[in-house]
Each structure stands twice: as C-alpha cells, then as structure tokens.
Fold this sequence. Notes:
The chain is an all-alpha fold. The chain folds into 3 domains: about 5-145 and about 330-390 and about 440-470, no CATH class; about 175-240, no CATH class; about 250-300. The protein contains 17 helices and no strands. The chain has helices spanning about 5-35, 40-60, 60-70, 80-105, 110-125, 135-165, 170-195, 210-230, 235-240, 250-270, 270-300, 300-345, 360-375, 375-385, 390-410, 420-430, 440-470. The longest helix is centred in the C-terminal third of the chain and has 46 residues, at about 300-345. The radius of gyration is 25 Å and the shape is globular. The two termini are about 15 Å apart. The model is unreliable at about 240-245 (pLDDT under 50).
Amino acid sequence: MEVDSILKILILVIGFYMAWNIGANDVSNAMGTSVGSGALSLRKAVIVAAILEFSGAFFVGGTVSQTIQTGIVDTTIFASEPLILILGMCAALLGTGIWLQIASYQGWPVSTTHAVVGAILGFGSLISLKAVHWNEIGFIALSWIISPLLSAIFSYLLFNIIQRKILYAMNPVQATKKLMPFLVFLIFFIFTLSCLSNGLKNLHLTISFPTALSIAIAVGALAAIIALLIIKRLPHLTEYAVSNPRHTPQTVLSLEKAIKHLQRVRASSHDETHLKVKDLLHAIQKLSNDLRKETTLLESTSEYNIVEKMFVYLQIMSACFIAFAHGANDVANAIGPVAAVLDTIKHGVMSEASIIPSWLLIFGGIGIVIGLATWGWRVIETIGKKITELTPTRGFCAEFGAAATILFASKLGLPISTTHCLVGAVLGVGLAKGFRALNLSMLHDILLSWIITIPASAIMTIIIYYILKFLFI
C-alpha cells in the first residue's frame, strides 16, 4: 500500500477517534444540564444531540474549521516538507484524543478546543516558533476568557429575571403563563437569526442581515403565538388555585436588604449604638435563615412544581439550541486538521485554506454523536449534578446563555470552548442563588483540569509526533 493511502486511512481513523472523544466530553457538557435537571433522560439527550449536533456541524460548521486548519500554524513554513505538517496534524489529533479519553473516564469536563489548539500550538512551536500565528493565538485565548464571562453574565441576568418575575411572584403559575410566550420568541428569534445572518455557507446560500432579521422575527412571533395558544388550552394552568403561603421568597429578599443596611450602620457606629445594632443584626440574620428554610420548602410545593414542568419544554428547546451550536463550533476540532492533511496529500503542497467537504462534516458529526452515546454519561454527571443544583428553570437559563455565546462566536470564526461556556453559564445561574448554591470544590477541580489540559495534550502530541516521524521519515 502506498504511503499516501496509509496516511489517508490513518488521519481518518484518528479524526474519527477525536470526534468520538469530543462527543464523550464536550457534548456531555452540552447535554449535562438537561439530564441533570431531569428535563431529558440520557436516551432522549442522545437522540436530541444526534439530530442537532449533526445539523450544526453540516450547516454552519465550516467557518470555524478554517480557523483551526490554518489560523494557528503558518502552513507556508512546511511548503518544502509537507509530510512534516501531515504527521504533526496526526499527532495533534491523536494526542488530544488520548488526553480527552483519560479526562472523560475521570469525569473531568475539559475543553476540547483548548486541548486541540494547545496541541497544534505545541507541534508548531516544536518545528519553529515562526510557524505559529501568535496574534491569532492571543485572539483565541481572549475568547476563552470572554466566553465564560459572557455566558455567566447572560445566564445570571436571565435567571434573575425569572426569579423576580416568576419564582418570587405572588402567583408563579400565572406569571409563567405571561412570560412563557416571550421566552419562546427569544429562543426562536436568536436561534433563527444566528443560523441565517451570515448565510448557510455549506448549502451555498447567502442571506442579507435585514432579510435574516425579518425571518427571525417572523419565526419567533409564530412560535410565541403557538405557545400562547397551547398555554391557554391547558386546563391545569387556567384552573389552578393559588395557595397563600405564610412567607414568600420576596420576604427573604427584603430581609437581606435590611441586613446589608444594618451592617453599614454597625460599621459606622460606636459604643452603645454599635452593640444594639449588633444584637439587632444577629436577630434579623437568624430570622432570615429560618425564613429561607421555609422558602426552600415552599419551592418544592405543587405550585412551583407546575412552573418547573412548564420550563421543561423550554429547556428541551434550549437543549436543541445548544446541541446545534456545539455541532457548529466543535466539529472543527476534529475535522479542521483532517481537512488540512487530506488536502495536502491530494495536492502535494500546502494551501492557505482548503474547502471543507460536506462528507467530512458528516463524518465528524457522526463520530461526535457516537461518543456521547457510548462514553458521555461520566461527564454528564459532573456538569449536571456536581456544580450546583439544577432545575428546569436554572437549566434553561444556563443552556440558553451558553448557546447564544457559542453561536455568536461560531459566526465570528472563534473556536471558543463549549466547556467554558457551559461551566460559566451554570456558575452564573448558581450565583443568582448565592455562593451557598455552588460546589466550590468541584469548580476548583474543573479549573485545575482546564489548566492541565494544555500541557498534557501538548506533551502527548510531541511524543506521538516523534513516533510517527520515526515510522514515516
């Protein structure tokens, strides 16, 4: 068998292995919030991911693939020795895949984008520091910082609105009925606009932004009208008798504000006034803690259960949204280097950017889905249950915040991390309930795993590169 044929088979096998590991780790992150909140079973999550991950990879996956393929390493450096680039890309994918499998086995939600960019960076630096586009690396690194912050802020604000407008309302069910059509509009509007604003490149369709905006508004409005009609026809929502609890969550909020004011008075007072304020503050803090316990019990009553059941449908929509977004962005991690290698083997020379064939997008999408179905449950448990307690309302806010960030970055060609977005979004939702709602120990472990990912994948890439170099050169 010719060397070129062997290299083609090798890169396709390694690329599929990498896609499988992306499914096992990153897609598990994407589906973890839905499974953790109980909105979707693991089986249903796999079905949703299979359809939407594939769609995202096929329709809008090509833009980011270009960044991974040529935006990190200057391929012209290898013009005289294309085999070096081929072996380096093979080593980067295999090294990253091995690290991801180790991380998935341990249940660590690491960043596959972080890993593959670090691996390619390690390979490029090994050959020549001049081969690395350091400006592009800085741009990508900045996106890794910005994306979790944006996800956290968006999710925090959205959950705060839901808390105040629905969960802390005097009639949560009635408030949900009023807000639900608007939330449905928001989901379909942003999802449609994200898909259409820059055109569906892989279908060779170009749609102007004004046209995309008009279509998105129409789709969102239609979805909101359908949601409104469905809600009105549900008897258990229209006939629900509202209970009159002794205390509401709003009472706790008011007491917490009073505590903050008293703390300021204590800090600026002296002598007898300071002691009186201190005693008063202690009494109000005890009352606040007691009422918080009652409020927590209140949120498990039938009224709040109905609200959460209504949000299950919204979370399923947002799960579809984030699966599509993930497929659009992270399929590039597996197929970007594969496309670069296949193009180099075919033409015998480097190219600034090769066309990403549709069959390769399909190939990567299939690998991702199989990885989720066979190995993803470990990371799903971590992201869905071990960071903070998730309910459908919280899960919806986390997923929607992360998905909006991912699709926005995908259109800009930024290979951001789904892991960073999801963890940032879950963190934002947890912060809306206070630091007590967060598992800080688990967040520490996740952050540490992110730090380890870059050197681990880089070291494995270097080792594998030398092995491949020994075998083929």
